[in-house]
From TrEMBL, chain A:
Pfam families to which the protein is assigned, alphabetical: CT_A_B
Record carries keyword Cell inner membrane: no
Record has Chaperone as a keyword: no
Organism from which the protein derives: Marinomonas mediterranea (strain ATCC 700492 / JCM 21426 / NBRC 103028 / MMB-1)
Lineage: Bacteria, Pseudomonadati, Pseudomonadota, Gammaproteobacteria, Oceanospirillales
Protein name: Urea amidolyase related protein
GO molecular function term, any single one: hydrolase activity
Coiled-coil annotated spans: none
From TrEMBL, chain B:
NCBIfam families in alphabetical order: 5-oxoprolinase subunit PxpB
Domain annotation Carboxyltransferase: ranges: 9-210
Organism: Marinomonas mediterranea (strain ATCC 700492 / JCM 21426 / NBRC 103028 / MMB-1)
Keyword Ribonucleoprotein annotated: no
Name of the protein in question: Carboxyltransferase domain-containing protein
Alphabetized UniProt keyword annotations: ATP-binding, Hydrolase, Nucleotide-binding
Listed GO MF terms: ATP binding; hydrolase activity
Length: 307, 236
């Protein structure tokens, strides 16, 4: 049994929590751009935390169900409808055979997550089904293809449904412009003035932003720096290339690189950033590692205890 | 070198779930040996999900949801303290031999390289294939290994404008490095030949045939051998 893809959308990708332990071979992790939205969608259905979902960027996707199941919708509000009736994110919906689920355009945020009970039945590559288009790996075909018209997304039929929703206080505010980050060991190579500019800037998200990295535009900082010897790049790394405009490296980032870094956005901050569209404004908030860790544990515990 | 002289790498948290060990600020064999040894030893620590070795550093990514970062930091430091330079010889790395069909038919930059270096094309081939290289880092694309160092005579900058399409298997040089493009991709290095073998096998657990720390040699083969081994003459 499956969802039949009537319209594939602009960029719809199969994702799980990512492909880990292969970065030393140059294979990036992939995984959901908005990790907490992904985690909540699986929690709503009492799925395994790593069960595969669809990451729907922008919208324009239409699916037709061939069997009964239960779905959860989290993340962005992309103007979704179920048989023509509006459905909102952060809750579950019962699906009957023949139902049509359609996504239009972003109303709030950019990426929606669609989970189905027990996940989609897809063969993993290197331990993960996460799709990385650039590396031609993962997804339905195993070769990194985004969703195509006519694709069949297999799932196990399920006639039971539980109506559940994410508690209001756990739903992020995608309109917030503040992106938490930590300064890291290379921050002292930037002058105090440049650091002040970095935190004072309101950056606009560039059109050249994707799952690999978000390019930001603001008052340039610390230009003309010499590169560093290429080193492993952590999730969220904020590179400052020669033009002084930050690039935040996200799920599909290259594994090594040689630009100096101001620090790292937190996984939560990276999720918020991922919901921004070109032209949206952001600014960075300086957090300590301890703050980041407390916040992370609180969020993960909230999902776990709510289950 | 005795144990007293083994300088401990610096430790820096990069985010809540990653730290960077920096072993040196210069690229050399000793540093690469040291990183290789530590990389091997850290694989035994539970909670470490990814280790990304590079020229002078080792990025350690850990699972912050199920493990305590202070405990992991302590274990990393203990493991490093237990390593002495006498362990360096015990690397279980291998020598990889890569057959290459050199020449302008599949290496469109080989004539320019010869001209730039003031030598004949045959000398380019001889110099490139008579050197044993070390894989200092893997990145840029899955299985893309940065190999060094090329002989001084072969040093040449990257191309001014990168090519939009470099065919899989292309063997290229730039600065003091050489590499094989595992998949067709854009690239700015100077292409001198092509290998018929696959560098990445998505079906295998090892995935890539070259890992950081491995020794790599290139072996010149003829056009006929290249074709017999399944090489493709696809153009650029």
């Amino acid at each position: 049994m499956a969802f039949k893809v009537i319209k594939p959308g602009l960029l719809t990708l199969v994702q799980d929590l990512g492909r880990h332990s292969y970065q030393h071979l140059g294979v990036t992790t992939g995984g959901p751009m908005d990790e907490m939205a992904f985690r909540w969608a699986n929690a709503l259905l009492d799925n395994d935390e790593n069960d595969s979902q669809l990451e729907i960027t922008f919208g324009m996707l239409t699916l037709e169900a061939q069997a009964d199941t239960s779905i959860a919708l989290c993340g962005a509000d992309l103007g979704a409808t179920l048989n023509g009736d509006s459905v909102i994110p952060w809750q579950t919906y019962a699906i009957k055979a023949g139902d049509v689920l359609a996504f239009q355009q972003p109303k709030n945020g950019l990426r929606a997550y669609l989970a189905v009970k027990w996940g989609f039945q897809i063969k993993p590559i290197l331990g993960s089904v996460s799709t990385v288009v650039r590396e031609k790996i993962g997804g339905l075909s195993g070769k990194g293809d985004k969703l195509q018209k006519g694709d069949m997304l297999a799932y196990i039929a399920c006639s039971q449904h539980r109506q559940r929703m994410v508690p209001r206080l756990a739903i992020p505010n995608y309109n917030s412009e503040e992106i938490p980050m930590v300064l890291s060991y290379q921050a002292p190579t930037f002058s105090h003035l440049d650091q002040a500019r970095f935190f004072g800037n309101h950056y606009a998200v560039s059109t050249e932003s994707d799952r690999m990295g978000y390019r930001l535009q603001g008052q340039p900082i610390g230009g003309n720096k010499k590169g560093i010897i290429s080193e492993g790049i952590a999730y969220g790394a904020i590179q400052i290339p020669n033009d002084g405009q930050p690039i935040v490296l996200l799920r599909d980032r290259q594994t090594i690189g040689g630009y100096p870094k101001m620090g790292c956005v937190t996984p939560y901050g990276g999720g918020l950033l991922s919901q921004k569209k070109p032209g949206d404004k952001v600014h960075f908030a300086n957090w300590t590692i301890d703050q980041v860790e407390r916040d992370r544990h609180l969020q993960i515990a909230r999902v776990a205890q709510w289950r | 070198m005795n144990e007293q002289e083994l300088k401990k790498p610096s430790f820096a948290l990069v985010s809540d779930h990653a730290c960077l060990l920096t072993f040196s600020d210069v690229i050399d064999e000793f540093t690469a040996d040291y990183i290789s040894r530590v990389n091997q030893a850290l694989k035994t620590i539970d909670g470490i999900v990814d280790l990304v070795p590079s020229y002078t550093t080792l990025l350690v990514v850990f699972d912050m949801d199920h493990y305590d970062r202070f405990a992991i930091e302590k274990q990393i430091k203990e493991v490093i303290a237990s390593i002495s330079s006498s362990d360096f010889g015990q690397r279980d790395t291998c020598e990889v031999v890569i057959p290459v069909y050199y020449g302008a038919e599949v290496g469109p930059d080989i004539d320019d390289v010869a001209k730039h270096c003031g030598i004949q094309v045959d000398d380019v081939i001889r110099l490139h294939s008579s050197t044993r290289y070390r894989a200092y880092a893997v990145g840029f694309a899955p299985g893309y290994a940065f190999l060094g160092n090329t002989p001084d005579t072969l040093h040449i900058p990257r191309k001014e404008t990168p090519r939009l399409k470099v065919i899989a298997g292309s063997v290229a040089i730039a600065e003091r490095q050489t590499a094989v493009y595992p998949s067709t991709s854009p690239g700015g290095w100077q292409i001198i030949g092509r290998t018929p073998i696959q560098l990445v096998d998505w079906g295998s657990e090892n995935l890539a045939i070259i890992e950081v720390g491995d020794t790599v040699k290139f072996e010149p083969i003829s056009r006929d051998e290249f074709l017999a081994q399944g090489g493709s003459l696809d153009g650029f």
